[in-house]
Design goal:
The chain is 0% helix and 54% strand. It has no helices and eleven strands.
């Protein structure tokens, strides 16, 4: 049974940092890519970082230079390092992993709150 779990959210002051973790287990197939998304109250879910199995990353303009996605040495584990956080970064952050056939598996999300 595939399971994707995020962790590392919390409360931080503006300008601070958080590191989120994502671990996928029960995978029968190799993972082609993974991505971090977020959803703030009343807003649509949006992409904040992506990384392929080759290590190619992509970020939207509003987090570029502040957020970094990386792979951990442990298999099927990734991080999202978030620096210079702003109150508008407050959201539930989700991890999604993609397997062959473009099937995505999602975690339940972790709350990150940035106070002003």
């Amino acid at each position: 049974q595939v399971q994707v779990v995020e962790s590392g959210g919390g409360l931080v002051q503006a300008g601070g940092s958080l590191r989120l973790s994502c671990t996928a287990s029960g995978m029968e197939f190799s993972i082609n890519a993974m991505a971090w998304y977020r959803q703030a109250p009343g807003k649509q879910r949006e992409l904040v970082a992506g990384i392929t199995s080759e290590g190619i990353t992509n970020y939207p303009y509003f987090v570029k230079g502040r957020f970094t996605v990386s792979r951990a040495s442990a298999k099927n584990t990734w991080y999202l390092e978030m620096n210079s956080l702003k109150p508008e970064d407050t959201a539930v952050y989700y991890c999604a992993v993609r397997v062959p056939g473009d099937k995505d598996y999602w975690g339940q999300g972790t709350q990150a709150t940035v106070s002003s």
